[in-house]
Amino acid sequence: MEGREERDPGYDDWFDEPEPPSESRSGANRGAYEPVEEVWVLPEDEAPRDRGLRGEIAIGNWTLTTTQAAIIAVSVLALVLAILAATGAFSSNKAAVPPVTTPRPRATVTVTSPATTPTKPTTPAPQQTLKPGDTGEQVKVLQRALTALHFSPGKADGDYGPTTQAEVERFQLSKGLGEDGIVGQQTLAALQQALSG
Questions:
Q1: pLDDT tens digits, one per residue of 46-66
Q2: 26, 25, 23, 27: which is closest to 35 by C-alpha?
Q3: Coil vs helix vs strand at 63
Q4: Residue 8: exposed, middle, or buried by beta-carbon count in 10 A (0-12, 13-18, 19+)?
Q5: In sequence order, which residues have a C-beta less than 8 Å from that of residue 185 and are 6 or more positions away?
Q6: 167: how many CB neighbours lie within 10 A of its CB?
Q7: Separation between Cα atoms, residue 12 and residue 10, nearest integer Å
Q8: Cβ-Cβ contacts under 8 Å for 151 (sequence gap 6 or more)
């Protein structure tokens, strides 16, 4: 456009759209355009803003104050430092490499035993019938046998007292025998069977 000189309005005007010139309605000026007052343009007498003199920085179409530019610079620096710290750039200690372990093959043990040989019970059963008041080695064997079967006759002292009698009755009850506290033939057989199985 000739006759119009380009000037910097001093502000961001990318939203501005020039209005089309209006044609005069008078016959004398037909074809000539009347000047239209533009609302978005600053008046002529106001001087354009001098960027950079008031502590502002222009980057492309953006104008930043020095404070805004400093905040952006510090943020970018903090981000770079955080990334470096996350990668371990500031760590003088090297991360310990876990030791390499090789799996050991499992050892297999094959145990063979003849099927015809019966195993002898580790705790023997008494060899004779017993009753409360008895003493001796066979009573100790009875007390050890009851302990091996998870009953509590107390210390194996060889004295068939009330504690041993109560545990014999509990054993008889667990095997469905009569609870008399006497180690008779049936109780003796049940003890031998429980210890061998």
A1: 555 554 455 677 777 878 888
A2: 23
A3: strand
A4: exposed
A5: 129
A6: 20
A7: 7
A8: 167, 170, 171
Query: Which two three-digit tokens encode residue 10?
Result: 């001093």
Residue 82: strand pairing partners: none
pTM of the model: 0.40
Tell me what the mean pLDDT of segment 163-170 comes to. Answer: 91
101-105, 129-133, 173-177, range with the lowest pLDDT:
101-105
Tokens (6 digits) for 161: 């007292």
For residues 126 and 149, give the distance between their C-alpha atoms in angstroms, rounded to a whole number. Answer: 14
What pLDDT score does 75 carry? Answer: 95
Give buried/exposed letters for 10-27 (b at 16+ CB in 10 A, else e).
Answer: eeeeeeeeeeeeeeeeee
Can you say whether the dihedral through the CA atoms of 140, 145, 147, 152 is positive or negative? Answer: negative
